[in-house]
Amino acid sequence: MPVEVPAPRHIRLTSHSSGYGALPIQWGAATPAERGPVVGTTTTRMHRNVIGTHSGSYSVYRALAVAAGALSRDHKADLTNTSPTDVIGPYPQWTDAGKIVSLDPWGATVAEVFAGELAAGYDIRPTIAVTQAHVILPEVIEALQSGRLQADGKFLTAGGAAMVTKVAIEPVWYLPGVARRFGCSEADLRRVLFEETGGMYPELVTRSDLEVFLPPIGGQTLYIFGKPRDLADPSVELTARVHDECNGSDVFGSDICTCRPYLTHAIEECIQGAQRGGVGLVAYSRKEGRALGEVTKFLVYNARKRQVGGDTADNYFARTECVAGVQDMRFQELMPDVLHWLGITKIHRLVSMSNMKFDAITGSGIEIGTRVNIPDALIPEDAKVEMDAKKAAGYFTPGPVPDADELKKAKGRELKS
Ligand SMILES: [Zn+2]
Question: Which of 124, 251, 395, 408 could form a disulfide with 37 if both were Cys (CB 3.0 to 4.6 A apart)?
Answer without folding.
Answer: 124
